[in-house]
Amino acid sequence: MESPLSPLSYQPYLDQLIAFGSQEARKPDLLVAKAEYLRLTGEVFEDDQLFELRMASFLDYYLYDRVSPASGKTPAAELYELRLQSGPPEEANAFRCFTETVHGLFEVRKLGKGLVRLRELHSGKDFDVTERRHMVGLETGDVLEARLIPFAGHLLFSSAFCFHPRVAVKAIKAEAKRRKKKEPERPPVEMVWECARRAVKAERYKQIAVERIYDFSQTTPWLASAS
């Protein structure tokens, strides 16, 4: 049976979730969450080239990942439960999608018409993402941080990305493989956050070789700092 939802109807539901998650009563918690997120992924400033994408990533983190101290649930889970109680089933199903996102580091395996095939570095699992836009500058073999949202039988990209330099791909893949084998108890998201911090440094410290910034065998003081 064909889903009554269409990938094109994704945005109105997301707008409702964003409005729900940014209500006035949540503003103090949003500020706390933002500080937490920047500690995890590296401080960014408004004049940084990465600023807008990093703020989009923060919003994703807040809506989909961060458990509210007040409710013990993410905003996405809260809204889904509300819609289950008060809305039609197909609307509740749309909001359930926001509780099932896939976030991680991905290698681009294939770029096709309307499709991007990704391989998640920790699990090795492949995902086919529906993407009608031409993703400028993206090539097979690139590594990026992304979030995939299942909607109407498709996987869609959220608006948040962190693109890592091509010269860092080999180091990132090797470190992901090493952690999976040697440190399986570490949450994969720690690698995502560490790479995000390194991306900020690569953007800010142009005088330092990217290979050095993405050298996972050492953490220098300038890399460890959040500013």
Helical percent range? 40-55%
Question: How would you spell out the order of helices and strands?
Answer: HHHHHEEEEEHHHH
Please identify, by name, the CATH architecture of the largest domain: Beta Barrel
- DSSP summary, beta strand count: 5
* Full CATH superfamily name of the largest domain: Nucleic acid-binding proteins
The termini sit apart by 52 Å
* Coarse shape: globular
Counted up, domains total: 2
Residues in β-strands, percent: 15-25%
Poorly predicted regions are none
Question: Measured on Cα atoms, how large is the radius of gyration?
Answer: 18 Å
Task: Tell me the CATH topology of the largest domain.
Answer: OB fold (Dihydrolipoamide Acetyltransferase, E2P)
Q: Can you give the mean pLDDT?
A: 91
Major sheet size, sense and barrel closure: 5 strands, antiparallel
Which structural category do the helix and sheet elements fall into?
Answer: alpha+beta
Count of separate DSSP helical elements: 9
CATH domain class of the largest domain: Mainly Beta
- Strand order, main sheet: write it out: 3-2-1-4-5
What layout of secondary structure does this protein have?
Elements: H1 10-21, H2 27-41, H3 51-65, H4 75-86, H5 89-96, E1 102-112, E2 115-120, E3 126-130, E4 143-151, E5 154-163, H6 169-182, H7 188-204, H8 210-213, H9 221-224
Antiparallel strand pairs: 1-2, 1-4, 2-3, 4-5
Helix pairs in contact: 4-5
Short recap of the structure:
The protein contains nine helices and five strands; from the N terminus they run αααααβββββαααα.
